[in-house]
Amino acid sequence: MNDIDAWNAFWYSGRIYDYLIYKSIHNDRTEKLFPENKNEVYNQRTDNQRTEYKGEG
Q1: With contact defined as beta carbons under 8 Å apart, do 16 and 25 qualify?
Q2: From CA 9, how far away is CA 15, in angstroms rounded?
Q3: Residue 57: pLDDT band by 50, 70, 90 thresholds?
Q4: 1 with 26: CB under 8 angstroms?
Q5: C-alpha distances in angstroms, 37 versus 6, 22, 30, 31?
Q6: Secondary structure (H, E, C), the chain
Q7: Does 52 score more than 80 pLDDT?
Q8: Tens digits of per-residue pLDDT, 10-40?
Q9: What's residue 17's pLDDT?
Q10: How many CA atoms lie within 13 A of 47 on its CB side?
């Protein structure tokens, strides 16, 4: 079963189980096509806090 067949099975049934099967197949396929994504760091912020703005008031 490919991800399109799994999506169609979910679309017609609406069952969570079918969606989980679709996501499993889709994630496996995506990981094979783009293996570097699992090693990417998404949060590269420095988390430095800036000074608070003191406006008129």
Answers
A1: no
A2: 9
A3: low
A4: no
A5: 23, 19, 9, 7
A6: CCHHHHHHHHHHHCCHHHHHHHHHHHHHHHHHHCHHHHHCCCCCCCCCCCCCCCCCC
A7: no
A8: 999 999 999 999 999 988 887 777 766 555 5
A9: 96
A10: 2
Rounded distance, CA 52 to CA 18, Å? 49
CA distance 21 to 8: 11
Rg (CA), the chain: 21
From residue 46, give the alpha-carbon distance in Å to each of 39, 40, 43, 49.
Answer: 19, 16, 9, 9
* Residue 36 tokens, joined: 């570097």
